[in-house]
Design goal:
By secondary structure, the chain is α/β, with parallel strands linked by helices. It contains 6 helices and 10 strands, in the order βββαββαβαααβαβββ. The protein has one domain: P-loop containing nucleotide triphosphate hydrolases (Rossmann fold), CATH 3.40.50.
């Protein structure tokens, strides 16, 4: 299958294994996938099926053993780490399942870190931080430390940080897992709106059946292989 030039992310023949000998585990087995601007794709499958591995490779965090990954038409496999960092910074917002917050920084400062890396001036970064925190329902938590936030609030803070730089591609690992139905719906509606109204490419790893109706496509993965289906209307 040829790469699609209109794709935000184009993956071809992607393979990844962990361990060696009898302990070797194949996480991805010759995976092909295109994700386009303006769509929200859910990656679903049992634990250990390869979902997070695929997301991490697409996000320039993990390197594959074989295959091709193009981000906005640029091949990233084989790039040195410095250039991979530049691709991540320029194009990708990553929402981690374990939050990856800085414990000694206030909530707004956690968001501002992402903007500082992009060279945004401090006063602009402060205002943008406030805007995205309000968008995820944390407008009253700007001065809070992460230890003073609930699990759901920490997840929403991680989402705000990922969105702060207005990335073209948003990759989210279980973004609604720690949220109740109201907050989970708010988050997935926010991500859906970024795809639909802003033309962003959004890929979400999830086990959350509550958000299935928000997807343009659902990609099922098991034993490192994909099965792509259209979302139900």
């Amino acid at each position: 299958m040829a790469a699609n030039g209109d794709s935000a992310i184009s993956v071809r023949g992607l393979s990844k294994a962990f361990g060696a000998g009898q302990a070797r585990t194949v996480a991805l087995d010759a995976v092909d996938l295109d994700v386009h601007p303006g769509e929200l794709v859910l990656l679903m499958g049992p634990s250990g099926s390869g979902k997070t591995t695929l997301l991490s490779i697409m996000g320039c965090i993990l390197r594959p053993d074989a295959g091709s990954v193009a981000i906005r038409g640029q091949e990233i496999v084989g790039l040195p780490e410095a250039k991979l960092c530049a691709v991540r910074l320029g194009h990708i917002g990553f929402i981690f399942q374990n939050y990856n917050l800085f414990p000694t920084l206030k909530a707004a400062e956690n968001v501002m870190v992402a903007l500082d890396l992009k060279g945004v001036k401090k006063h602009e970064a402060r205002e943008r931080s406030r805007e995205v925190m309000e968008a995820v329902g944390l407008g009253d938590k700007l001065e809070s430390l992460p230890e003073d936030l609930s699990g759901g609030q920490k997840q929403r803070l991680a989402i705000a940080r990922a969105l702060a730089g207005d990335p073209e591609i948003i990759l989210a690992d279980e973004p609604t897992a720690a949220l109740d139905s109201v907050n989970g719906r708010m988050v997935i509606e926010l991500l859906r709106g970024l795809a639909l109204k802003r033309g962003r490419c959004v890929v979400v790893v999830t086990h959350d059946n509550r958000i299935l109706d928000f997807a343009d496509r659902i990609v099922h993965i098991e034993d490192g292989r994909l099965n792509v289906s259209e979302a139900q209307s």
